[in-house]
């Protein structure tokens, strides 16, 4: 009898060992894991593929809200993940020096050791990058940039006017219209470059980058970081990102051709503190940083403006009140600019805040984890001691629809943000659509200004309503679901993805 083991026997042993391992892993994660006492879907407690599946389907924000409804304030959304739904957790997680960005953010690296503002986890490195970028988003810098922004908004108004000057009014799809505006503004802010998406088709492919989609799916499986994820860069480039990156590189090279002064202005986008003789590495570095700046700067404002126009078209009482405020505050178009008059438009700001609450531009969970040092005190989130290696977060969409903090959370009620609103209408401690703390959105002030100016000019120049048959959301059974159907529909692709609303515009007085 031969002493050698047959291939069939070896294969059978491998299968048995694999089954035994999976059985023990399931047993451990369900009953002996440090998070085993936390509720959540069984599949989520067993595998990160739960989050990846819903991220791929762009519905993770909706699933997270449902799971909070089913399981409570704290849910287990992965073997090593806890999602909270409380204002206290917001503070404990996002304004806590013991917490870093999750290592899952490293899936956006293009090479080992190369970091941008988005994926820099080291607090000191992130602080340095944020400080550099912040120089271009100070109050003084935004004021200096405002004339350029205003010109682009005027182009936007002219584009809308072209849809209502004909005998047959043509509906305007606000998603691409606002996306083109916001990308044009970012092109001027970052590069002083006219991308001209509003008037030309050449660069309109920049409206459809899937970089955030790739990132959102990949970050749900943090183990990808251990698989040298920068090798996935090729796949990322293949996912409709190649033309976007190529355009950014051409824009950067155009800036370089304008001389050293412009080149040094772009240093805030580079991890390198000095410009070398060879531009190739420097351009790649700036391009990587600029990609995320462009996406963040354009997606946020586009979602805010598109969703607000949806809610105003659907809520005529709110629409009429805002029209009265804008048209009595400003006597002519040239008066619409930053300053005391715009700041006095309290209902306009309330409409923006209510839109951000109902339709946050970043609807998902921004994952964080504790600093892995044995010398520091235990990490506590909303009274829960968090074991090392566990990722924690608050789902933005879920907390902004939490009835404990916002009464009738699926109803558009700008009045909840005005002085004198009743108790329970709006809890500002739970309102963080731009996140909080050291990693909060740098461009928050600019986003508010851009959205305020654009909305004020739209209201001053035009009346609008929904194009018949083009705004309807399919109804479903159940009172709660019917309430949700009154929301502007978005998909969670890290940044919100949407289409519409389709509106008919008429010049005021016509």
TrEMBL record:
Cofactor(s) this protein cannot do without: heme
Gene3D superfamilies: Cytochrome P450 (1.10.630.10)
GO molecular function: heme binding; iron ion binding; monooxygenase activity; oxidoreductase activity, acting on paired donors, with incorporation or reduction of molecular oxygen
InterPro entries attached to this UniProt entry: Cyt_P450, Cyt_P450_CS, Cyt_P450_E_grp-I, Cyt_P450_sf, Cytochrome_P450_monoxygenase
Pfam family, one: p450
rRNA-binding in keyword set: no
Keyword Transmembrane helix: yes
Key words of the record: Heme, Iron, Membrane, Metal-binding, Monooxygenase, Oxidoreductase, Transmembrane, Transmembrane helix
TM annotation in the entry: 6-28
Signal peptide: none
Binding site residues for heme: 441
Family label: Belongs to the cytochrome P450 family.
PANTHER family: CYTOCHROME P450 (PTHR24305), CYTOCHROME P450 MONOOXYGENASE (PTHR24305:SF226)
Protein name: Cytochrome P450
Organism: Neoarthrinium moseri
């Amino acid at each position: 009898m031969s002493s050698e083991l047959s291939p069939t026997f070896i294969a059978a042993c491998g299968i048995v060992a694999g089954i035994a391992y999976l059985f023990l892993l399931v047993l451990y994660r369900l009953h002996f894991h440090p998070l085993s006492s936390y509720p959540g879907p069984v599949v989520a407690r067993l595998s990160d593929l739960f989050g990846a599946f819903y991220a791929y389907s762009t519905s993770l924000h909706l699933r997270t809200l449902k799971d909070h409804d089913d399981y409570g304030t704290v849910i287990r959304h992965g073997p090593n993940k806890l999602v909270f739904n409380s204002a206290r957790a917001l503070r404990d997680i996002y304004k806590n020096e013991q917490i870093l960005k999750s290592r899952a953010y490293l899936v956006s690296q293009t090479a080992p050791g190369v970091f941008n503002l988005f994926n820099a986890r080291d607090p000191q490195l992130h602080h340095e990058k944020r400080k550099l970028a912040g120089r271009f988003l100070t109050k003084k810098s935004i004021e200096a940039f405002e004339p350029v922004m205003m010109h682009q908004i005027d182009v936007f108004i002219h584009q809308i006017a072209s849809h209502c000057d004909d005998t047959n009014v043509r509906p305007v799809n606000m998603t691409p219209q606002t996306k083109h505006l916001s990308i044009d503004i970012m092109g001027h802010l970052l590069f002083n470059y006219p991308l001209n998406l509003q008037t030309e088709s050449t660069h309109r492919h920049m409206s459809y980058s899937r970089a955030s989609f790739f990132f959102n799916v990949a970050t749900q499986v943090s183990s990808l970081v251990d698989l040298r994820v920068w090798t996935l860069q090729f796949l990322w480039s293949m996912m409709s990102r190649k033309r976007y990156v190529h355009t950014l590189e051409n824009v950067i090279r155009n800036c370089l051709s304008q001389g050293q002064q412009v080149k040094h202005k772009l240093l805030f986008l580079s991890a390198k503190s000095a410009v070398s003789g060879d531009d190739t590495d420097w351009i790649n570095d700036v391009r990587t940083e600029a990609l995320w700046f462009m996406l963040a700067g354009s997606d946020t404002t586009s979602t805010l403006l598109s969703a607000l126009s949806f809610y105003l078209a659907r809520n005529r009482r709110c629409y009429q009140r805002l029209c009265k405020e804008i048209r009595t505050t400003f006597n002519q178009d040239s008066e619409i600019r930053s300053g005391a008059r715009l700041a006095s438009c309290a209902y306009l700001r309330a409409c923006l805040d209510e839109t951000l609450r109902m339709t946050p531009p970043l609807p998902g969970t921004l994952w964080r984890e504790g600093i892995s040092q044995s010398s520091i005190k235990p990490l506590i989130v909303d009274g829960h001691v968090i074991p090392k290696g566990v990722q924690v977060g608050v789902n933005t969409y879920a907390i902004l629809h939490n009835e404990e903090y916002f009464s009738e959370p699926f109803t558009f009620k700008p009045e909840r943000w005005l002085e004198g609103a009743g108790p329970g209408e709006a809890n500002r401690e739970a309102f963080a659509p731009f996140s909080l703390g050291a990693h909060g959105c740098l461009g928050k002030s600019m986003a508010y200004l851009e959205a305020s100016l654009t909305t004020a000019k739209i209201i001053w120049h035009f009346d609008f309503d929904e194009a018949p048959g083009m705004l309807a959301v399919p109804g479903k059974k159940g009172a709660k679901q019917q309430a949700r159907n009154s929301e502007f529909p978005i998909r969670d692709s890290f940044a919100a993805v949407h289409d519409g609303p389709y509106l008919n515009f008429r010049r005021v007085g016509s």
